[in-house]
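Q: Fold this one first, please.
A: Sequence and structure below.
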Amino acid sequence: MKMQNDIVSENPQSTVVAQYERTTPRAEAYQSEAELEQGMIAQLQRQGYEYAHIHHEDELIQNLRQQLEKLNDFHFSDNEWERFFKTEIANEGKGIVDKAETIQRDNIKAFTLDDGTQKNIYLIDTQDVHHNSTQVINQYEVSDGKRPNRYDVTILVNGLPLVHIELKRRGVSLKEAFNQINRYGRESFWAGCSLYEYVQIFVISNGTETKYYSNTTRDSHIREQAKQGKKPRQKTCNSFEFTSYWADAKNKVLGDLEDFTATFLTRHSLLNILTKFCVFTDQKILMVMRPYQIAATEKLLNQIEIAHNAKFYGTRDAGGYIWHTTGSGKTLTSFKAAQLASKLSYIEKVLFVVDRKDLDYQTMKEYDRFQKGAANGNTSTKELEKQLNNSKSRIIITTIQKLANFIKKNPDHDIYRKEVVMIFDECHRSQFGDMHTAITKRFKKYYLFGFTGTPIFVENISASSKGTLKTTEDVFGKRLHAYTIVDAIRDHNVLKFRVAYISTMKEKENVKDDQVWGIEEEEALKDDRRITNVSQYILDHFDQQTKRASSYTFSRLINIKEVVTDKKKKVEEERQKTRLSGFNSIFAVQSIDFAKLYYNKLKELQAEQPENKRLKIATIFSYAPNEEVADGEEDEDNDSTDGLDQSSRDFLEAAIKDYNLMFNTAYDTSSEKFPNYYKDVSQRMKNREIDLLIVVNMFLTGFDATTLNTLWVDKNLRYHGLLQAYSRTNRILNSVKTYGNIVCFRNLEDATNKCLALFGDPTAKGVSILRPFEDYFDGYDEVTEDENGEERQEHVKGYTEYLEELRELAQPGEMPLTDADKKQFIKLFGGILKIRNLLTSFDQFAEQDPLSERNLQDYTSIYLSLRDWAKENAESGDKTNINDDIEFEMELVKQVEVNIDYILFLVQQMQGDRADIAELTIQINKAIDSSPDLRDKKDLINRFIESLTPDSEVADKWKEYVDAEKRKEFERIVSEEHLKEGPAKEFIETAWERGYVPEGGLELNAIMPPINPFDPNANREGKLQKVLGKIKGFFGKFFEIAGGEF
């Protein structure tokens, strides 16, 4: 029987179905994994896919030839096919990234035929997607990888495996399917002719929950794999955090496999996603757009088409606005919308308009990242005019100020009579109304669109708005698509907020809280005792709130001064991977007077600290003629300080001098240098070089830094200003950063609740804000909905409950005996690490934590030993699937780990009091065993301790010792493997600069000794892997402890 909802989105206009309603009842009977697979294949066949009986590589290659011949209406001779296959399809020099680039950018191959003529061979037809063939295969076997594997379901497009689906039966964790694909990546996707490296999209499902993700690995994961001695080119997927749900245009998640298959996997939708809604970035990362991004893009394009056909251009009916919450990827959506709109034959130009000069620069960099040279930026009105005159400049990024100036200077330009798409990004400033009027008056055939994370509704219109253009709908027209903060948090695309309210004015026990919070007099708020209390609180709790105990690898910009002072924007960014501790923060204050008070007080309180212990604090502000204090909405001038009174300017000048000393720069408040100071501050915040940035309005909108996790607030905020400010903190980075951290020194609870209700829905507070301390500490009951929409109550375990279970399973330092107990230990301790990560930001946790530091170290040691056990099992092949349902929280382990500085501190203590040597030695070895980064250095550290004399200066001796050991080990590897010493040294220096060991290619070959090509026992590949293994071991041992220098 044919399912009625098999092809719900098969529609020439939309990739994302408008509103999905299942039309057949959900099956209630138990479903095995095999039944799930067969049901999916049958559904795909009903949707127009051909089932192909292909289970081995020779069949896959034969079918590929047939499908490409059919697509190109051309027959290869055997010789031509062999040449084409070896050079263009299965070229041994090409890995996953090269193959992604082939599909996304280079899918038409100019091929020389046997008779010498040239023919374009299409791998995929991106113009007419229905011209492509789609087939489904299952149980494909690979026997020549690291070990034999059999894959679940694969979709072939023109014979190439472009989508792979891994299934688990209902009730099994989705991560098992994810981990299984990881394992295939390590073991067999690269086997044979490596055709499975062409997979663009992976789909994982347990029947109930289904997600998708792209094939390329984020830079940080490449490095992590390289450090662990795995081949990055065989690593085929992102971190689980970057997997996505599919949804309809109303943002209803379509998790059930049947629903996902009926929408995402319809031929039309899938082929559109592969050919139109993937972005292969300049950093060689494949981004598959999310459903809300695709829906918004298509709604915008559809609106242009309707308005063009009905000749509505030049009216509000030709446009509309996209409401996508801050942090959900609006820039990518706008890029794709601009790119596709620019290809419409009747559109002359696409203008992407921002409301600040720095956002112009920032957007240009983002667009360049998506596709180099796709858009044109400009530094002056004159340059904008040139681009508007140039037919080749299809997409132009500019500021609203430059556009308004262009209109003033060119009252009768030819562009006004052409069809022009204008996309405005977050234009909320008070002067926008006037500029909007000027633009719509001159341009006769405009299509006007607004992108915003916080629309202006009647409820949140600012008092200073002028004229009749008030709400976002008044300005741009109807809402085309919405994706709110509730949607984004539910889909794990942004983080929740944790909001703490700290009263620093309560001095008498009998004073009620509401009286304390109600004091609004300026004098009371500026009282030196209050300023001191707030400043001291920040200093005392800074490490705790910004999680300075955690560490992670991050790619830092190292040529900041050159980049920010480059007027022509031609300086290439240089990045270097480095190890960072924790995150950084912004302190939003009410006014410039407050900024002065806090900057001076924090400087005074830090003065007694050693320089290396002081926080790096900066401040930036400028005068704003229309400053909207109550909203906290940015209206400051990033280019000039001319509006500041003399006292404020003198203060800022002094603060910039402090900054110059801190970072060896030469900025000041002049109109030439202040804009570069702004850019420098921006880059150093993104680099996590500044610890605390004090601002009035700047940096509270439009600024993205993944390393920023905390916002300290002594400022009245409401509605869009509040959500914009809070949202600076909730970008996803890693498993340590699980929420955006807001610490309020004013009572903003009511304002926060009203804001979330306006921009989310009445239940938004429960979705968007973390629960109270007691819930995470003791556990709580939660009401959820099952897949049929029926309510059920579940108990969510708390920290103390996890600890109790762990103690029943194993005492501190005790290894569980059975495999089942070991896996249970891994899961329980992983749960403890996750909850500890949340609890550590609550002030009361330190006093109430029942787990002592020693016991935590002992449990961590066992956890790391079990990680080694799991790795050995995976590598031995005895228990192939033992790791598929195990997840190690290594980033969270590193949050509680000790580092080499702590170990050296303990060693120095041994020097001072020789009587405690036995106890300190035990302490040192326990600490080393509990650290993932120091475990492999245990012998090195113990040999160092043995070499010390009672009067040794530990820190100096350690550096000498590490340098000597590093030299010895390097020379030993060169000697044992007969490497070329000069090139080998250069190779290692390159690894030190990049933060990971480069894999394969010319770099590695250059250090190898000559090998006799006629020697049958030479085994060059084996030799390469052996050398690579030794170099990685050397790198892992010395990179961190050698201070980043070779």
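Q: Good. Now the second chain.
A: Here it is, same layout.
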Amino acid sequence: MFFTILLGFILFLLLLHCFLRYSRTGRIFSKIPGPTSFPIIGNLFEFQVPTEDLLPKLWEVNRKYYPFYKLWFLCYFGIIFLHPDDTEVLMRSSKHIEKGLVYHFLKPWLSNGLLTSSAEKWQMRRKILTPAFHFNILKHFVVTFNNETRYLVTSLKEEGKGAAVVKDLQEFITQHTLNIICETAMGTSLKGKGELESKYRNAVRIFSKTVAYRFVRPWYYPDIIFSLSSVGRLQKKQLKILHSFSKKIIAERIRFHEGTNGKYLHNFEGINEDDGSCEGTEDRNKNLMFKNRLALLDLLIASSLNGNQIDEEGIREEVDTFMFEGHDTTASALCFILSLFAKHKDVQERIRDEVKPVMQENYNLTISMLQEFPYLERCLKESFRLYPSVHLIFRHLMQDLQLKNYLLPAGSICHINIYSIHRNPKYWPNPDVFDPDRFLPEKIKERHPYSYIPFSAGPRNCIGQRFAMLEIKVIVAYILYNFYLEPVDDLDDKDLSFIRLIKPWFYLDFIFAFLLVGLSFILQVNTYIMFLTILLSPILFLFVLHCFIRYGRKGRILNRIPEPKAYPIIGNIHRFQVDNEHQLEKLWKADKKFYPIYKVWSFFFCSIHLLHPVDIEVLMRSTKYIEKGMPYKCLKPWLSTGLLTSGGEKWQTRRKILTPAFHFNILKHFVAILNKEARYLVTSLKEESKGASVVKDLQKFISQHTLNIICETAMGISLKGKGELESEYRDAIHEFGKTVAYRFARPWYYSDIIFSFSSVGRLQKKLLKTLHSFSKKIIIERIRFHEQTNRKYLYNLEEMNENNIFSEIPENNNSMFKKRLALLDLLIDASLNGNQIDEEGIREEVDTFMFEGHDTTAVALCYALGLFAKHKDVQERIRNEVDTIMQQNDYKLTISVLQEFPYLERCLKESLRLYPSVHSIFRHLTQDLQLKNYLLPAGSICYINIYSIHRNPEYWPNPEVFDPDRFLPEKIKGRNPYSYIPFSAGPRNCIGQRFAMLELKLIVAYILHNFYLEPVDLFDDIKIMADITLSLLKPFRVKFIPIK
């Protein structure tokens, strides 16, 4: 069955290659130059670089392959136009006006408006809308420009109060261009108009972000998949606001015009710009949503009443399109314009000299006045040349296009790179220099008209370019008349890849997406037989795959196990694809619904969730099922195959070697380190508080000290005040833990090769150098020391007195070495005693001990101290027990003393029940497992959710309540031992659980002996996120009050 699937897939690839290479399109395309390509995958991989390097990379390739080249992947064929001659042939034609896939993402808001519609519908809408931008209509919009710009100037002056004021141009300008476009499109101001308008303003911004987010994530291109994502759901909410707002305005506006018999919809062009639409003040029913001046909406309504040229939905589409197109592009242009003028003081001053006399004579700018600013216009055009708001245009060829030297086949996507065209040195000498005189009439006359296309060109050029130029002129004129501009940030230092001008939705960083674009091309090809072969091959492959998954032996067995609703092949794992904050909550909800067993699966992966102690006991007490699951693979780059990650014979050998290291007589040496670090913790808190209370974020504070402890016990090295090397090591451990959590939540990074190419994979590689070099250095020096001393300090380790362990060792002038026993010494002893473990094995186990013993203990302490701070009665009872025992033993805590804290131990166990540090365990079944009611097939992953098991009401009445008396001897006696497994259970249980309990007891004892604890953040409000451990999403603070 496996070979059938493999051969089917190979056959599919072969047929696909033949189709791409030898079909008519493939043969035509092979004649066009381009970067080096490979079969099927093409050459788009050339642009798989970090986002900040993408545009420089694109411009570099543009220069190399000027004036024309191809990019392709699978069935996607893109042609990059860089020469005005070729651009003219494409853009002046009325045959090639179809937009590319990019514009599909705007349709949820704009539907089929002027920007997104195609062919016949676009031509009809263009005809309707063209009069709306007639000279005599635009004069009414200029009134809005004046009002909004005066508002902008006034707000700046009020904020500055006569002094200078610094502004982030993007945020500041965008707010005002959005106000302008809303008033001109719908006649409605967004300033101080209540909750509805505030929601609308935010919805416009959020929708734009969702479009950019979707565009660079090809897996969200299908509408169905995107709608299931959190961003898709967010977009849906914004669309309700956007559409309901515009529909409400449109309906009321239509109702108003119907009520006035449409008398304000006649002779628009004859209305004086000083009184445009002002006659209707009384008739507007005192509706504050309506302005007294003309809006694009009124023009569209007039068209709808004049021969039904457009319906109400069409009006909504065009109003929304005008909102979208006229808002962000203008803001982006203004940002660069103002930055350039701030940089070039001479240009700024010359514009001011031109604007000043006109505005002193009449502060209200009209169209005729705006035409008196020739130098300003040249400066604006030069800014558009350097930084065009829309730097790429896409055209989808519905039929062949013959250029001067090449034939382009139907189905291709044409990319017109405006940025590169505008910096072509053939037409623009010294193209990176800002020079407004390039646009003097005598220089324009001799220049190719398609060498400058900031508003596109040809039939599908920007319909609102005159509107945009008027708006920009008004805003710049008012600003320079009222203010001097000085740069705070240097424009030359800006990374264009993230400036809003160079829009993120035009990135090429999306390789798999092009299969969707190519599909539209395939459907137009006349080679139907080839198409059907290619189409049927993946269908056959999917059918065979489904049969294998569903009706193979493993599939037939798994079919009997309950599950959340699943789909063929993809299964049901997608139901758990939520953000980290809600993932565990989603999982626990499913645990309750499908208790005591259910499966989660996708393709060949199947995870069986075991929730009943009886089933868990069958799995965990056996020595047959000790292989760890896939998640532990993420730890191997650091831990290799240490005790945590190894399996089979190696695990058994290592377990046998390490078990004596946690013998009672060995642990007593480690307790000395625990005492020392706990005293250091208390002293540092007291010094910081200076007799008063001190507030600490438990996660950060406790983690620092548990890391110190584990480093001393594992390697005999303290990280306190030991220089740069140890500081790097501490940071590397924290950062590595983050990279593991990041990778684990992203299955596409489970492949080592793919992960190694990611930025996080590269970061992890750097961290591993630090981690491995540190531990290897210590191990080598420690081995050398023991060899020089003839191993005399490695004999009879268990009999050595805990007060003088290594006391005979000379200082050796090496501050890296401590005089007390470390796990490393025990491993070296094993390596010298019969070669039971080699040097690499020592490194694996030391690193494993560092990883397992650091974060888990810190997490357990955070929850324990948080619970004790919440439950004052419990805290006081522990304190009384601790104070009594410590006074009786002269404040020295040894193993024997720590065993005299029965109530503290019950409290810690109850804390670990409610919040187990390791909340889940995985086992990989290498052979079938028979449970009471189900057979689990080999190859499955068993998932033991400790958190849910510990809250099973069958074994824990009122499971959410903190009750230490659950662990009284008489209550433990009748309970299933596998209903409480904070340290796992069976042969593969946690080897260091006694060490961990000693550490927890000792640190809690020292803290409660010296401090009262009070909660700052409410424990009931904590948020837990999916991580390696049961981590807190936000800081959790506790107040430490010194006991005097």
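Q: Anything worth noting on the second one?
A: The two ends are 75 Å apart (CA to CA).
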